């Protein structure tokens, strides 16, 4: 540490293990997020009478995974939440609540996936990986 600092620190955590441990934890966190995404997708498909479900998409070029709404049927049309919302008014309150809860989970899991994937890239850079 520089002579300008009056803070005493234990330097042992910075002897090369910090980024490795962080990266391992991030990989575990990422696998957990993807597992939760898979579970939510399967759960949305099994709900009786739904016209839509949550699809887990994998963008191979970047490795990104994200949840998106799709319609059931022969032609799987991708939908935005804004296009689904008007139809919720014709549903019971419990159905509306279910879709709103699922959509909140979609948004949260998609955000967790992005943040964790970016953190993995940062930890890999600190480790000298590409």
Description:
- The protein is α+β, with helices and mostly antiparallel strands.
- Strands 1-2-3 form a 3-stranded antiparallel sheet.
- The protein contains 3 helices and 3 strands, in the order αβββαα.
- The longest helix is centred in the C-terminal third of the chain and has 34 residues, at 93-126.
- It has helices spanning 18-46, 81-88, 93-126, and strands at 52-58, 65-71, 78-79.
Q: Could you outline the blueprint of secondary structure elements for this entry?
A:
Layout (H helix, E strand, L loop, with lengths): L17 H29 L5 E7 L6 E7 L6 E2 L1 H8 L4 H34 L4
Antiparallel strand pairs: 1-2, 2-3
Helix pairs in contact: 1-3
Arithmetic mean pLDDT: 87
Distance between the termini: 29 Å
The description of the largest β-sheet is: 3 strands, antiparallel
Radius of gyration, whole Å: 21 Å
What portion of the residues fall into strands of 2 or more residues?
A: 5-15%
Helix content: 40-55%
| H/I helix tally | 3
Please state the structural category: alpha+beta
- Residue ranges: pLDDT <50 for 5 or more in a row? none
Number of strands: 3
Spatial order of strands in the largest sheet: 1-2-3
Keywords:
single chain; 130 residues; alpha+beta; 3-stranded antiparallel beta sheet; 3 helices
């Amino acid at each position: 540490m520089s002579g300008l600092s009056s803070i005493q620190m234990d330097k042992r955590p910075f002897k090369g293990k910090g980024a490795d441990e962080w990266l391992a934890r991030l990989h575990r966190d990422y696998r957990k997020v993807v597992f939760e995404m898979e579970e939510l997708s399967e759960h949305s498909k099994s709900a009786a009478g739904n016209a839509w479900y949550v699809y887990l998409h994998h963008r191979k070029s970047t490795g990104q995974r994200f949840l998106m709404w799709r319609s059931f049927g022969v032609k799987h049309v991708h939908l935005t939440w804004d296009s689904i919302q008007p139809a919720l008014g014709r549903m019971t309150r419990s159905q509306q609540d279910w879709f709103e809860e699922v959509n909140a989970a979609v948004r949260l899991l998609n955000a967790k996936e992005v943040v964790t994937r970016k953190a993995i890239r940062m930890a890999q850079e600190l480790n000298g990986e590409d």
